[in-house]
Amino acid sequence: MQKHIKIFCLLYFFLLLNISCEKDETCHCNTEETCKTPTENDDIAIYEAGTQEFGWATASKNGYCWEASSSGIYAWSDSTSIAIYMFTYTTYQELREYFIIGNLKVDSIGRYEIKQDTQLGAASASLTLFGLDGDVLIAGWKLLENECNYITITEIDTIANTIKGEFDVHLTKDWGDEDEDIIQDIHFTNGKFETSILE
């Protein structure tokens, strides 16, 4: 009888542990969404992915297929914090989009909320658009706080110095050239990346 009580207590303990360790799923993103290839009649700009020398990223950008080159870089002041940089280019290989998810602690696998205010230790995100020649800033987007913004680190390889993950990030125009026809909100959904962490 005493053996059954111990087994029951152990099962009960593991059940409680499993319930308390479940990830926060307060926002439910559309994982079944498929992206489409834009035509010249669409009002969304999709640029070239570049060489993807250090890594890659894919997502649905406002419903359209988006690919980028990526790299991870450690923070100057904190070797446990990195930023994931994602870049797209013009057909002439000039920098066009600069998308960053920063302030990531790389000590564990898991899901991290992305917020505008990083004072609470949360990850952050922003997007910058460059002109066709790659040296003039045209517009910038900041986080849409009321949306489901997160990054999930699915794998960290400390031997190969690589990191893999998924993300959903929703942005709204923060500043920009008024002469340009620039979209107000950008939604990166079902994002995935795999990249080297550069030192």
Q: Please, could you describe this protein's structure?
A:
The protein has one helix and ten strands, in the order αββββββββββ. By secondary structure, it is mainly beta. The chain has one domain. Strands 1, 2, 3, 4, 5, 6, 7, 8, 9 and 10 form a ten-stranded mixed beta sheet that branches. The longest helix has 19 residues, at 2-20. The protein starts with a helix and ends with a strand. Mean pLDDT is 81; it is low at 1-31.
Descriptors for this entry?
199 residues, mainly beta, 10-stranded mixed sheet
Blueprint of the fold:
Layout lengths: L1 H19 L34 E7 L2 E11 L6 E9 L5 E11 L4 E4 L10 E7 L6 E7 L6 E8 L4 E15 L8 E14 L1
Parallel strand pairs: 2-10
Antiparallel strand pairs: 1-2, 1-10, 2-3, 3-4, 4-6, 5-8, 6-7, 7-9, 8-9, 9-10
The secondary-structure class comes to mainly beta
Percent helix among the residues? under 10%
The pLDDT mean sits at 81
> What is the tally of helical segments?
1
State the shape.
globular
What is the CA-CA span between the terminal residues? 59 Å
Number of domains: 1
Biggest sheet overview? 10 strands, mixed
- Please state the CA-atom Rg, rounded to the nearest Å: 20 Å
How many individual β-strands?
10
- Helix-strand pattern, N to C? HEEEEEEEEEE
Unreliable segments of 5+ consecutive residues: 1-31
Fraction in beta strands: over 45%
